[in-house]
Amino acid sequence: MQDEIRSYQDGQAGRMRLNRPHALHALDLAMVRAMTRALIEWRDQDDIRIVLIDHAEGRGFCAGGDVVTIANNIDGHVAAARAFFFEEYRLNHLMYTYPKPGVAFMDGVTMGGGVGITCPCRYRVATERTMFAMPETAIGIFPDVGGGRYLSRLRGRLAQYLSLTSARLNGAECKALRLATHVIASDRLDAVKEKIAANPYRVQAILDEAEEPGSGDAPILARLPLIDRCFASDDLHAILASLDAEEDPWAAATAKTIRAKSPTACQASLRMLVESPKHMHFVDEMRMEYALMVRLIEFPDFREGVRAVLIDKDNAPTWAPLADVAPFFDPLPEAEAWSPLPAHIGKNDF
Ligand code: QUE
Question: Based on the structure, what is the number of domains in the chain?
Answer without folding.
Answer: 1
